[in-house]
Amino acid sequence: MKKPTEKPQLPKTIAAAYGVACDSSFGAVSPPLYLSSTYEFSGYDQPRAFDYGRAGNPTRALAAEAIAALEGGAGAVMTSSGLAAIDLLVGRLPVGAKVVIQNDCYGGTLRLLKAREKLGYIQLIVVDFSDLNALEAAIKKGPSLLFIETPSNPLMRVFDIAVLSSLAKRYGAKTVVDNTFLSPALQQPLSLGADYVVHSTTKFLNGHSDVVAGALVALNDEDCQELNDWSNITGAISSPFDSWLTLRGIRTLFARMEQQEKNAMTIANHLNNHGSVSKVYYPGLTTHPNHELAKRQQQGFGAMLSFEHKDGETGVRKLVETVKTFTLAESLGGVESLIAHPATMTHADMGAEARKAAGISDGLLRLSVGLEHISDLIEGLDAGLS
Ligand SMILES: *Cc1c(COP(=O)(O)O)cnc(C)c1O
């Protein structure tokens, strides 16, 4: 393979064309999918760029480079899931290291970190990030890592990456941002002071609900090298086919995000004026408490939103059983619209008490807005809400 162009490129160009026409064998325009698990040495003691598929794979490397370029990082590691990417980072911390995380993050992230804590690997400090005093007190305890998810899941709270990461830096902690909800098309945490970005590429980056994979991007070369070594040591890698599909999905990232966001904004405004909805959580609404911050920190408001049904669980049940244009399913970020009930689905494992503390009620529904015609989406919701 020829090297992708060394010229600096604008993000939309990277997404659409990174690695295109780099095949020196046949001039393939779409980058080839290399499934081989092993690579011939060119001679005695002469390995080539790749020797074994766990240590490296050309297809995976290309997708990782594209994601790193979009995030403005030195490099990226691609893993078998978003949680594997988080575990890769946490697994490299010294035993007993403290990790600070918000109380309203993705349920699976909290479950993973709590499981690691229970086994004695880390000490977890869970705080409400909107309480800056509590957050500062936690960071003063000397954590190795501050974990930020913004916008948060499912309440779409937005946290100031620049403020939080500089606070972390002051006390010697590194910052990782889960950028799954916005993707690098709409938010670049490394440019705001974060040291790492983590993705469930299962979601917007791949965008077609046919891959489970993750990525971990590091700002500096040294971290990147260490994480790459760690992925080879632990075997936390993404398959060539998943990597290939993910890069293929990234081609349309900007166009998808733009249109899905438009649909989400229209739906948020519609629900905000709907008699059966008591509250809408979408940072694009001027009534959202973090609207100004979102406007400043993000290049868009994304395609995720949540709302409270006025009739609580009874209303929720009726809606999810009648709504046609939204599929009742976990996950998000695909071209098709999904509806999820956090209390019984994504956040069920958190337990009722923790959900209550995080403000996740039984009447809350989360939408991942897709590319369908907006009239069909609104009609479907209205039918379920009437
Ligand atoms: C889905 C998700 C994860 C976990 O990713 P997997 O690919 O399912 O392991 C982590 N963070 C956020 C915000 C997610 O939505």
UniProtKB/TrEMBL annotation:
Protein family: Belongs to the trans-sulfuration enzymes family. L-methionine gamma-lyase subfamily.
Under the subunit heading, UniProt states:
Homotetramer; dimer of active dimers.
Query: Catalysed reaction(s)?
Result: L-methionine + H2O = methanethiol + 2-oxobutanoate + NH4(+); L-homocysteine + H2O = 2-oxobutanoate + hydrogen sulfide + NH4(+) + H(+)
Q: Which PANTHER family match?
A: CYSTATHIONINE GAMMA-SYNTHASE (PTHR11808:SF75), TRANS-SULFURATION ENZYME FAMILY MEMBER (PTHR11808)
> What GO CC annotations are associated with the protein?
cytoplasm
- Residues annotated as carrying N6-(pyridoxal phosphate)lysine in the record are K203
User: Which superkingdom, per the lineage?
Assistant: Bacteria
Task: Kindly give the SUPFAM superfamilies that the UniProt entry links to this protein.
Answer: PLP-dependent transferases
What is this protein identified as? L-methionine gamma-lyase
Q: Which GO terms describe its biological process?
A: cysteine biosynthetic process via cystathionine; transsulfuration
| Enzyme Commission number(s) of this protein | 4.4.1.11
